[in-house]
Amino acid sequence: xxxxxxxFIRQLIDHSLAxxxxxxxxxxxxxxxxTCAHCSEYLEASNRTISALRxxxxxxxxxxxxxxxxxxxxxxxxxxxxxxxxSRMWQGGIVALLLTVFGSFAATQLGARVAAAxxxxxxxxxxxxxxxxIAPSLWICLLLLLLPVSESLDE
Amino acid sequence: MNDDTQRIARGLGEKDxxxxxxxxxxxxxxxxxxxxxxxxxxxxxxxxxxxxxxRVLERGRTxxxxxxxxxxxxxxxxxxxxxxxxxxxSVSLDSTDCGPHAPELLSPVSxxxxxxxxxxxxxxxxxxxxxxxxxxxxxxxALILRFQEDLSLQEIxxxxxxxxxxxxxxxxxxxxxxxxxxxxxxxxx
Lengths: 155, 189
Prior knowledge:
The structure holds two protein chains of two kinds. Chain A is an all-alpha fold. Chain A has helices at residues 5-18, 23-32, 37-53, 64-118, 122-154. Chain A folds into two domains: 5-53, no CATH class; 88-154. Chain B has two domains: 1-112, Rna Polymerase Sigma Factor, Chain: A; 113-189, Winged helix-like DNA-binding domain superfamily/Winged helix DNA-binding domain (Arc Repressor Mutant, subunit A), CATH 1.10.10.10. Chain B is built from ten helices and no strands. The longest helix of chain B is centred in the middle third of the chain and has 26 residues, at 69-94. The N and C termini of chain B lie far apart (48 Å). Chains A and B meet through α1, α3 and α4 of A and α2, α3, α6, α7 and α8 of B.
């Protein structure tokens, strides 16, 4: 049984309109179409349909552009503010960490003198430093460093 | 891909508001047209357009500038439109009370002219308007992207997340339905 040659050409026309034909298939179309009224009519009907698809013109709300631009500007400002706030928190956290390290060193030196004057044992001195200086300052550092991370997870 | 797409990618990466404003002016109408063809409705389009541009601002870094900007933009709009449709269906199915939007969501048929009837500017377009309204969205979408936006099959496949062969089939079938309608109108007149 022989396939309908017009059917094949019509498929090629469809492929061609969709942008899916090879150069050989394009050549087949170029050779066939001038000799076949049926297939030419099919191509013409397809082209007319495509032209009709381009015959729609939608009205646009004249205020839409300005609303979109305003919301974009507002959101961009929010993003920028958030970015600035985050970088400030990071900077604060790093400064606090440095202060903790150097402060702990200074507190140890000062604590040794105080312990000697008050006759405190080394264990008491270390516990006091850990409870009243190192632990609180580390908590503050962690808080400043982790807040930006939790904010970014919330977004 | 070229200087223009690279420039857009750089600007989006830097959240350049001036560039975004220029993109809105350049692509706004095409975005609106695409969403109307996708949804077959005018109602949610303005909100979706606004949401799409905000998403472009927030996720601009994911555009690499290796391909054209339009497919990336339309893909964002498409995802938002699908989310919107899902939410709307969920509300209409779940809602047991008659909220302020319930009648609109539950009403299957609108008596208002369709967006296509309102937008038809030529005689042939008017012939197609009603058929377009009843055509499945996947076919309308494929047709508008191919024949109005002049996107390649590969670009359309990227937007819709389907193989190129599926996109081709949608174009053939959609075109066949519309061509049939045009032929019927032609013979009737």
